[in-house]
Amino acid sequence: MPKTDNNSLLSQIDTIARGLSETFSPFCEVVVHDLKNPEHAILSIHNNLSGREPGQPATELGLARIASPEFPSIIANYSNQFADGRPVKSTSIGIKDDEGKYVAALCLNVDMTLFRGMQSALARFTETADSPIKEHIDPGSNEVIRQRIDDFAAKCATTARALKPEDRKRLIQQLRKDGLLNVRKSMDTVAQHLGVSRATAYLYARQSAQAGE
Asked: Structure pTM?
């Protein structure tokens, strides 16, 4: 690849890197590597979290890419760490020239410190203990209904309140098939959990019943 073309490619990659770093700031460092110059591979670092500087050499992963065009173009979400021990989730993307040789890499390093702290806090907060006395403050199977709705939404890669109308109809049809709409005030629970009015929930129920006939 001519030097001018290589510089143009690196410039475009650097623009992408800057946009990614601004999107995921302050948690993600984005690094552009010039693999044509392994001794000074780091071209730029956006949202610098690792303390490295432009001009530093390629990492072991970068050298492996330079050595073999067969090296995977994407290695995503692998465990890493900064020099001070902070845990990192990294993704490395290799970029090839027209001849199929690696000439650059775009790397994302996410500082997991805050997220792991949040994860620990949430785990502690949601932790429950066994009790010798069983108490049911939610009569009937309304909690089961809410869980079924959440499970259905998760399979649609969304949340209960973000379900599309057609998905809501399919959900209610499934709840009816499972006998959960026979539970006292079941439609109130469905409406509340979906974030719709009671009238809308009943409309979905009628439409799903007609569709199932």
From this structure: 0.63
